[in-house]
Amino acid sequence: MDLKNYQHEVVVTDEGLPFKLFAFEGQNGNYVREKHWHRSIEIFAVWEGRLEFTLQEKRFPLNGGEFVIVNSNEVHSIAAPDVNKTVVLQIPQDTFAEYFTDDQFIWFSHGDRETDHRVFTLLQEMYLIYTNGEEANKLQVLSLYYELLYILVTKYRKFNVNEEILKNSKQLKKLSNITRYMKDHYAESISLESMAEQFNYSPSYLSRMFQKHAGINFKDYLLGIRLEHAVRELEETNGQIVDIALGNGFPNSKAFSNAFRDKYGVLPSEYRRSNE
């Protein structure tokens, strides 16, 4: 499969939790998310409205009360032509490490109607409790989350997987290992050269690998990870902007501000004021 037009998405879990749970950014309609992939397992649950999903070139229309599971390294795109209410749960693939096959692979699909209904209900309950904002609710959300993991492993895990699916996953595995390392060490001094040495590639080969499979160059990918963490600190802490910059791998506050403005259209200070 030619992946040169597919972009790799950076997934960062919520603070203090082993997953990321959020309202779909295309909820206002007239939205298209082009083909992309990520290491995490992702579940889209549509409460109201409809979405048009494409998984590995196959279309899956979703209506209210339905959900779809996106597996690790599965190329997908999303179209939301109309207003909708959709919740997204992203689970790091390594959550299921002890259930991997010999190929370091795991795949999920839907179960029976009753089990699907329970999964949909779990996602609803998790989101409603999670967005209530009370710290003590975190434990309740986690209890629902672990029930969901149990269902995925015992009811939805598939052992007989199409060979083409396995081949495509292996194609992205090398890059996923590199991007995982970058997500773990983004605050450190990382360069193309140091990463190439870490994974026994030449810098030019690693650069081509990023451009071909992630659809983005190495520098911009690393920048995206750092900005993702920095944005969360701007929203959730009162830290000084210079400290946020240095704590997330930027050499100084000026470099951080320039990168932030290029991506979000405003300076970090302006973004923070607008979210107060």
Q: Order of strands in the sheet with the most strands? A: 1-3-8-5-6
Kindly name the structural category. Answer: alpha+beta
Order of helices and strands: EEEEEEEEEHHHHHHHHH
Gross morphology is globular
Q: Strand fraction band?
A: 15-25%
Query: Can you give the helix content as a percent range?
Result: 40-55%
Low-confidence stretches: 1-6
GO molecular function, one term: sequence-specific DNA binding
Pfam families: AraC_binding, HTH_18
Organism: Pseudobutyrivibrio ruminis
InterPro entries: AraC-bd (IPR003313), Homeodomain-like_sf (IPR009057), HTH-like (IPR037923), HTH_AraC (IPR018060), HTH_AraC-typ_CS (IPR018062), RmlC-like_jellyroll (IPR014710), Tscrpt_reg_AraC-type_HTH (IPR020449)
Give a verbal description of the structure:
The protein is an alpha+beta fold and 276 residues long. It has two domains: 7-156, Jelly Rolls (Sandwich); 190-274, Arc Repressor Mutant, subunit A, CATH 1.10.10. The chain is 45% helix and 18% strand. It contains nine helices and nine strands. The strands form two sheets. Strands 1-3-8-5-6 form a five-stranded mixed sheet, with no helix packed on it. Helix 4 (192-198) crosses helix 5. The longest helix has 23 residues, at 163-185. The protein starts with 6 loop residues before the first strand and ends with a helix. Mean pLDDT is 85; it is low at 1-6.
